[in-house]
């Protein structure tokens, strides 16, 4: 490992940093990061650090907003039956909640419909629309979907039911013939900000409805009671946290912190959130979003909607308990499918594939995207994971680094039943026969330009300068997320007092620095060899805070770790390190049954592999259990390889 994939960002002019420091009363570290983000004048920096309603755009600038406003106002005051048709992920669920609550304020006769991932699929569904119309729907409002629903929308419009589409997804050359299409990137529109999420677009419609389409001049005029929902959906959908999204999310997080809805409060309690712990984008990304998304992944997302709109504490606690149980089930399923998919990914058949297309039987379709993401981290290449359902393989793909997986896989459109997505993520359906053809064509690809993932480092710091005060100063830059990343700092060879692994399979690592600050790396078993020799290590990390048993403690989160390059005369030590890392990463792999395959993958002989495992056993680093599984001994004492008799014999025979 080296720092070749680190990109040290340009340092801003000292004059600009001094000006920001003095005029905005912020410290030098914060001022430097702000200037690096492009806010080099006090006015621009203040607007970034203190987002206000003046940064929100007029909702009437959105395409067809005037038509949507007039039709929904007419329907609400005329007693027509309105159905809000949402989506099963958190952006879709929060979009639904925002639209329903806004229409209820107007006194509308409104109900919500969340499609089921497995029976309805994504977006407008003809059969679902027919049922809704048969039940009396007179206006259908789509949120976080609709621009790909030509057939269902046309059917509804022919039946005399007006369909108003609010969406943010990619626009096809031909759009549905809807009553109105509200979309920030509509080709005939002129909206000044293109990156609203589904809930962001829904909120702009709610803003128009609840302010009577008048520009907002005061905070009291804005429907701020909906901004907590907006923050959840926008963070979960990973939209750009710039421009008005930054305002919407900042205010929404503050609302959750000051007066959380009963459902959100119950979720946070189940997630272990403590009283003095701040509510930020990380809270949503790691505590709230996975739980609510789990509901739609495994079943009916209406439970998530019911929880978010609940006004009763007891009901919210009951619903949150159900959500927690579903999330626990989701975690178990992910581990089971990931284990099976990993065995396939590591097999000889896929060893030389530049893009992995892995298929299984009866894997739960709702979690394939999560499994693909984890395999990408493990294999360091793009991965597509599919499961056969009713004779067709369906699944999700995730890219690696900046590689455009969507464009590559789009070359094989003639093989797919369905295909969609964007550069970094996609979904597809394919028959078994076509899957075989796809996998064969993937194997014949010319070398692809899949670069190692870059780590943007804001600046190099000493470990001693990374303090609680530094963390507190950087919270001014929240909320962090897409296009507003958390600052990353490089630390060159700090003194490490202790190194240990964590987790059920020792997949996490914890370094205790000489100044007692801890640095943790999650789901990086390949770093585990550092435990035996934690010297001359450099790393890149973000600053975080650990809240445990009533104590608040600075904690660094490792983004990358590097070790000195191995010299030629120590090549054998590199082989030992590679084998050690492989063992850490694959403790659920039976070595006895797969010795030939493992040796081939590591490009060493089977004899040498056996010797290396025996050396680790002698040194107390590993032990063999259950007829061939090699398990790492947690926190084994550091020992030199030369303390092993087998290792000395190995050297003598070289």
UniProtKB/TrEMBL annotation:
<dbReference type="InterPro" id="IPR018779">
    <property type="entry name" value="RecJ_C"/>
</dbReference>
<dbReference type="GO" id="GO:0008409">
    <property type="term" value="F:5'-3' exonuclease activity"/>
</dbReference>
<dbReference type="InterPro" id="IPR004610">
    <property type="entry name" value="RecJ"/>
</dbReference>
<feature type="domain" description="RecJ OB">
    <location>
        <begin position="459"/>
        <end position="560"/>
    </location>
</feature>
<dbReference type="InterPro" id="IPR051673">
    <property type="entry name" value="SSDNA_exonuclease_RecJ"/>
</dbReference>
<dbReference type="InterPro" id="IPR003156">
    <property type="entry name" value="DHHA1_dom"/>
</dbReference>
<dbReference type="InterPro" id="IPR038763">
    <property type="entry name" value="DHH_sf"/>
</dbReference>
<feature type="domain" description="Single-stranded-DNA-specific exonuclease RecJ C-terminal">
    <location>
        <begin position="571"/>
        <end position="648"/>
    </location>
</feature>
<dbReference type="Pfam" id="PF02272">
    <property type="entry name" value="DHHA1"/>
</dbReference>
<dbReference type="GO" id="GO:0003676">
    <property type="term" value="F:nucleic acid binding"/>
</dbReference>
<dbReference type="InterPro" id="IPR041122">
    <property type="entry name" value="RecJ_OB"/>
</dbReference>
<dbReference type="InterPro" id="IPR001667">
    <property type="entry name" value="DDH_dom"/>
</dbReference>
<keyword id="KW-0269">Exonuclease</keyword>
<keyword id="KW-0540">Nuclease</keyword>
<dbReference type="Pfam" id="PF10141">
    <property type="entry name" value="ssDNA-exonuc_C"/>
</dbReference>
<dbReference type="GO" id="GO:0006310">
    <property type="term" value="P:DNA recombination"/>
</dbReference>
<keyword id="KW-0378">Hydrolase</keyword>
<dbReference type="Pfam" id="PF01368">
    <property type="entry name" value="DHH"/>
</dbReference>
<protein>
    <recommendedName>
        <fullName>Single-stranded-DNA-specific exonuclease RecJ</fullName>
    </recommendedName>
</protein>
<dbReference type="GO" id="GO:0006281">
    <property type="term" value="P:DNA repair"/>
</dbReference>
<feature type="domain" description="DDH">
    <location>
        <begin position="81"/>
        <end position="233"/>
    </location>
</feature>
<dbReference type="Pfam" id="PF17768">
    <property type="entry name" value="RecJ_OB"/>
</dbReference>
<feature type="domain" description="DHHA1">
    <location>
        <begin position="353"/>
        <end position="444"/>
    </location>
</feature>
<comment type="similarity">
    <text>Belongs to the RecJ family.</text>
</comment>
């Amino acid at each position: 490992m080296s720092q070749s994939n680190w990109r040290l960002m340009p340092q801003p002019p000292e004059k600009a940093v001094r000006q920001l420091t003095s005029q905005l009363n912020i410290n030098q570290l914060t001022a430097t990061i702000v200037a690096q983000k492009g806010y080099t004048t006090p006015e621009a920096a203040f607007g970034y650090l203190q987002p206000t309603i003046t940064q929100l755009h007029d909702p009437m600038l959105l395409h067809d907003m005037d038509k949507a406003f007039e039709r929904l106002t007419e329907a609400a005051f005329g007693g027509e039956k309105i159905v809000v048709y949402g989506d099963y992920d958190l952006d879709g669920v929060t979009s639904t909640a925002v639209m329903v609550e806004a229409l209820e304020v107007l006194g509308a006769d409104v109900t919500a419909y969340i499609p089921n991932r497995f029976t309805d699929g994504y977006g407008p569904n003809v059969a679902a629309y027919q049922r809704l119309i048969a039940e009396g729907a007179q206006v259908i409002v789509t949120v976080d979907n609709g621009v790909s629903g030509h057939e269902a929308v046309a059917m509804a419009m022919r039946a005399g039911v007006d369909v108003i589409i609010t969406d943010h997804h990619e626009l096809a050359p031909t759009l549905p013939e809807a009553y109105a299409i509200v979309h920030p990137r509509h080709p005939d529109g002129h909206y000044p900000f293109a990156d609203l999420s589904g809930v962001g677009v829904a909120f702009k419609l709610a803003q128009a409805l609840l302010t009577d389409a008048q520009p907002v001049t005061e905070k009291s005029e804005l429907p701020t009671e909906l901004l907590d929902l907006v923050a959840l959906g926008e963070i979960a959908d990973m939209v750009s946290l710039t421009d008005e999204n930054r305002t919407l999310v900042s205010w929404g997080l503050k609302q959750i912190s000051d007066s959380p809805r009963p459902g959100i409060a119950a979720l946070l309690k189940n997630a272990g959130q403590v009283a003095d712990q701040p509510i930020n984008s990380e809270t949503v990304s790691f505590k709230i979003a996975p739980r609510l998304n789990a509901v739609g992944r495994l079943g009916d997302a209406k439970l998530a909607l019911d929880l978010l709109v609940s006004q009763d504490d007891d009901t919210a606690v009951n619903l949150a308990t159900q959500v927690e149980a579903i999330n626990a089930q989701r975690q178990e399923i992910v581990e089971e499918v990931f284990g099976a998919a990993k065995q396939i990914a590591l097999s000889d058949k896929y060893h030389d594939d530049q893009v992995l297309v892995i298929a299984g039987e009866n894997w739960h379709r709702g979690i394939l995207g999560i499994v693909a993401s984890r395999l990408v981290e493990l294999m360091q290449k793009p991965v597509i994971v599919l499961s056969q359902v009713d004779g067709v393989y369906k699944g999700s793909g995730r890219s690696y680094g900046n590689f455009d997986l969507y464009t590559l896989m789009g070359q094989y459109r003639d093989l797919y039943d369905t295909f969609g997505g964007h550069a970094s993520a996609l979904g597809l359906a394919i028959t078994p026969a076509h899957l075989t053809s796809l996998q064969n064509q993937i194997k014949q690809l010319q070398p692809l330009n899949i670069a190692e993932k870059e780590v943007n480092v804001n600046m190099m710091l000493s470990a001693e300068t990374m303090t609680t005060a530094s963390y507190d100063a950087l919270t001014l830059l929240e909320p962090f997320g897409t296009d507003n990343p958390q600052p990353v700092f490089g630390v060159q060879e700090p003194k490490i007092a202790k190194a240990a692994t964590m987790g059920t399979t020792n997949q996490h690592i914890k370094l205790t620095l000489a100044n007692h600050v801890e640095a943790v790396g999650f789901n990086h078993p390949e770093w585990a060899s550092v435990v035996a020799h934690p010297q001359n290590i450099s790393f890149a990390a973000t600053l975080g805070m650990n809240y445990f048993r009533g104590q608040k403690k600075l904690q660094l989160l490792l983004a990358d770790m590097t070790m000195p390059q191995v010299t030629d005369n120590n090549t054998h030590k590199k082989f030992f390190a590679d084998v050690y890392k492989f063992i850490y990463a694959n403790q659920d792999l039976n070595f006895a049954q797969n010795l030939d395959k493992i040796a081939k993958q590591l490009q060493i002989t089977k004899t040498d592999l056996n010797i290396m495992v025996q050396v680790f056993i002698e040194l107390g680093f590993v032990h063999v259990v259950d007829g061939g599984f090699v398990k790492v001994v947690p926190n084994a004492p550091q020992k030199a390889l030369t303390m092993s008799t087998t290792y000395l014999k190995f050297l003598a025979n070289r």
